């Protein structure tokens, strides 16, 4: 009996020194946070270019008030079917990478990835793509107008 208890205590002490999932010291919230080295530059990467083209047309956009900010939703119309990975990208940003307004205008580009091979056009409804962007109350403080930009047009909403 004493041998089993001694073996159990030794096993617990050995596991406590490890970085295994059996170590109770590693049972933090969400599995515990670990700091790992990274090769990324301290101030981030400087490449600001998004390789995705701007969508052909912006059909519509709405700004809906939500707790803590607003959600900008835009419907775009690419030239053919098969486009994917749509995002509204802020043209102006703060040093911290947060969206910002310039002269009271928040400008969002509707960017999307084209298909590898052109696809036939069936109808407008089958080509429409929807994307949304959340803006916090802090980001909206100096905003008077929100504009979503496409290649052939832009749609704006004012306060």
UniProtKB/TrEMBL annotation:
Under PROSITE patterns, the record lists: PROKAR_LIPOPROTEIN
Domain of life, per the record? Bacteria
Task: Spell out the protein name for this chain.
Answer: Lipoprotein
Instruction: Report the source organism.
Output: Aliiruegeria haliotis
